[in-house]
Design goal:
Blueprint lengths: L1 E10 L4 E4 L8 E4 L15 E8 L5 E8 L5 H30 L5 H26 L7 H23 L6 H26 L7
Antiparallel strand pairs: 1-2, 1-4, 2-3, 4-5
Length: about 200
């Protein structure tokens, strides 16, 4: 169920405040990262549409927030569908990678590289998420993108979905998926090269 109400408290420096539904009801915590539109800052009195959720302590929080007249709830349906599709894509890729390695079409080091880099990339996202919540020193986005390009994108995608981190920043997502496509292209080029040679070069 979605609610509508004004933002009646807001700390712009820290990026959080509170919203209360029209006509009264449960007051909910609002965080800047829950807004669909990251191109503008919220302000007192903004009319919001949101889903009521809970944090780890069971306190009410506003989820999937959009400004009235801005992003619509249908936007979140499209985002959720994209997340499901991306998860399926990642699982299929990992399964295909394992099958090709088992069949001898790919050398074991390639599988180990994807596994190791995915683990390292996931840990970097985990650290960056923790630092973001504590307003600490962040890991550069360029570093996260390079880790994804260097065979760590399955771990990055898993971290994004599990941690809900870097999923709403459209510029980052465009760059991230460009690195995924580039990595898959490089893998395809490697397989094409190996198919014309006997034995592995390493």
């Amino acid at each position: 169920m979605r609610y509508q109400g004004p933002l009646y408290q807001w700390n712009d420096e820290k990026g959080y405040g509170f919203v209360e539904p029209n006509g009264g009801g449960t007051r909910a915590f609002v965080h800047i990262k829950e807004f669909a539109d990251q191109t503008r800052r919220p302000a007192l009195g903004d009319l919001l549409i949101y889903r009521l959720g809970q944090d780890e302590q069971g306190r009410p929080v506003a989820r999937e927030i959009c400004f009235v007249g801005g992003e619509t709830p249908a936007h979140f349906e499209r985002v959720e569908q994209f997340r499901r599709n991306s998860n399926q894509f990642t699982l299929l890729f990992c399964l295909l990678l394992a099958i090709l390695t088992f069949m001898g079409e790919l050398p074991i080091p390639v599988l180990l590289l994807y596994t190791g880099m995915s683990l390292a990339t996931y840990l970097c996202y985990l650290v960056d998420k923790a630092r973001a919540m504590q307003n600490g020193w962040r890991i550069a986005e360029s570093t996260l993108l390079l880790l994804g390009l260097a065979c760590g994108w399955p771990g990055a995608l898993f971290a994004q979905r599990q941690l809900n981190h870097k999923t709403r920043k459209r510029a980052f997502q465009r760059s991230f998926w460009a690195t995924v496509l580039a990595n898959c292209a490089l893998l395809g080029a490697l397989m094409y090269y190996l198919s014309g040679h006997r034995g592995w070069p390493f």
